[in-house]
Amino acid sequence: MTSPLIELAGIRKSYGTGTEVEVEVLHGIDLALHAGEFAALIGPSGSGKSTLLNLIGLLEPPTAGSYRLLGQETSALSDDAITALRGNAIGFVFQFHHLLPAFTATENVLLPRLIAAGPVTAPQRESARDLLREVGLGDRLDYLPRKLSGGQQQRVAIARSLALGSPLVLADEPTGNLDTHSADGIFALMRRFNRERGTAFLIVTHDPRLAQRCDRIIELVDGRISSDRVNEVSLVTT
Asked: For position 18, what pLDDT does the model report?
């Protein structure tokens, strides 16, 4: 088997370190995710799911332990190197889209490229528009977010997460504020990109119906992984 995309060993995360109110949220997490995996991260509220996703996404550092991303030990990297690695390796999809309201759908998809490399070229702009066509928004390329439905805005967010060809997408409750029909459409899109592009997905969800359609289900309880299993039903039916 090839080396993991991500590899966490003994990861701990505390807040208020060194104070009387220090609280440890994650207690020694060991986790690996390989290219092309499609996994759900589940658990009750307060179990540490979002904290773990933030650590994997290099949005905050662990208190202790080792985190390797694309084979690089992240604790040894400078802030600039971490920013560059995050931009190249990870796409993000959040529950509330985080689209810039003054930017069109195309411009929002181009944001990661603008941040990473500055002004975009005509071919790069067309590539962003192609991504929007792939997610079913070919007739909304120049719409502002306020003119898009919640499901359409989330489709823009998915296209944005794929704009740099990142091998890993982290999705934090990506269907949490959508109706069932829209949620099913978003899930199907992520599934399609997983199959066609080999993009790995790690999806935090409270929806057991969606989790059961993932190939792997990782459950976090009280800051510890309580179970990590292959979902045989998903592998057979999806």
From this structure: 74
Strand order in the sheet with 216-221: 90-94, 168-172, 200-204, 38-42, 216-221, 224-230
Give the Cα separation of 20 and 25 in Å (integer). Answer: 15
Q: How far apart are CA 220 and CA 211, in angstroms?
A: 13
Highest mean pLDDT among 12-16, 216-220, 229-233: 216-220
Which pLDDT does position 235 carry in this prediction? 54
What pLDDT is stored for residue 237 in this prediction? Answer: 54
Judge whether 41 and 204 are in contact, CB under 8 Å: yes
CA dist 58 and 8 (Å) reads: 12
The pTM of the full predicted model, rounded to 2 decimals, is 0.87
Residue with tokens 């060809």: 165
| Domain limits, the chain | 6-237
Alpha helices in the chain (DSSP H): 49-56, 79-89, 105-117, 122-134, 150-161, 180-197, 208-211, 232-237
| pLDDT tens-digit readout, 47-97 | 899 899 999 999 999 999 999 999 999 998 999 899 888 888 998 888 777
CB 130 within 8 A of CB 122: no
Write out the CATH class of domain 6-237: alpha beta
From residue 98, alpha-carbon distances to 80, 84, 176, 234 in Å are 23, 20, 14, 30
